[in-house]
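Format notes (please read before filing issues)

Several people have asked whether sequences and structure tokens are stored in separate files. They are not. Every record keeps both together, in the order shown below: the sequence lines, then the token lines. Line labels are part of the format and must not be stripped during preprocessing.
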Amino acid sequence: MKKIVISLILLGLIIMGFFVFKKEDKKELTKIKVGEVTHSLFYAPQYVAHSLGYFSDEGLDVEIILTSGADKVTSAVLSGDVQIGFCGSESTIYVYNGGEKDYLVNFAGLTQKDGSFLVSRKKIKNFKVSDLKGKHIIAGREGVLLKM
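Then the structure lines:
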């Protein structure tokens, strides 16, 4: 009986020691701010990766900021407010052609065309474009409403 009690006490001390002296595995995350020109379905993979914690799994603390307009994205990157900007190449070309010594470098292309998506609040079976006749469509830019 004495051996069982002593064994249980030793086991308890070993388990307690494991929790008391356990190293914290918290790694320091690198903070990165991303400025995007618009919220878009094109960036859905980024939003999913962000919400599922994939960036933090890779050691990144990513903050996504809406900076409406390519000129504002470019300004945010040049000022250091964000480290990465999502926008078209036009404003980076303007900065470069303006003779600036500190200009942006485009390093990736996410899309090749300006795409659009047609979405509905209700499921429509066998949708046809003619189904839009008489409907109002809100376009991707603020203040644009089409009457079909």
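For reference, the curators noted about this record: The first strand starts at residue 30 and ends at 36. Residues 2-20 form the longest helix (19 residues).
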